[in-house]
Amino acid sequence: MASSIEAIINRQLMRWEIERSRRIERKTSVPRRPQVVTVSREIGSRGSFFAGRLAERMGFQLLHREVIDAICASSGYRRRIIESLDDRFRSNLDILAESLVTGQSVDHSDYHRYLIKIVLSMARLGGVVLVGRGGGFILGPLRGFHLRLIAPVEQRCTNLVKYRGLSHEAAQEEIERVDQERREMIRKLFGQDIDNPHHYDLVINLAMLELEELIEPTVLAIKSKFERLAVDQAGN
Known about the structure:
Elements: H1 2-26, E1 36-41, H2 47-58, E2 61-63, H3 65-73, H4 75-83, H5 87-99, H6 110-125, E3 128-131, H7 135-139, E4 145-150, H8 153-164, H9 168-190, E5 202-205, H10 211-234
Parallel strand pairs: 1-3, 1-4, 2-3, 4-5
Helix pairs in contact: 1-3, 1-4, 2-10, 3-4, 3-6, 5-6, 8-9
């Protein structure tokens, strides 16, 4: 698992570093249009699977929460990401990150600060689908596209039994535990309610919908928002 995470991180870091070298050669900066999608999901909704299919369709790299945590824990990875940024954004990164925690009565740990800086940096660099860790709460409505996937508890139990081999009772306990942990994490780090639909661009209830049939409509919604943000930013 660790080697797999390292391979994912190194592959994406190399891609960003190559892109930075090309920008330097062309004497251009990072495009202002956001190219990041965040995915929040209820456990058992198959949201992680959907995020993977979405990343594949868009040609983006999927970065799940274990990958994000590994980056935050490594000074080497953090340094390489920040070095891939254009100079202007890099110089403003600390100020921007601090502005997101100043005045909040929530967790101000090193992990929280690293998380904010890394997610902001990855959003600037683009080409990724971020799963979990409150990415949408960090970026806000003007950076990236924010998606949440939900499903009825019984359906989520069925999925955990089918795809993770849990008993029905164990699946119910896992749902209760993880739902509570995720609510508490978002409340602790961001002072927000993970279940509030107003935090997301799109909330999909999978009770009566097929995942594969939702890929193209979701891609259209993402592209539509990216285009609108690009127009708005060009006018500023």
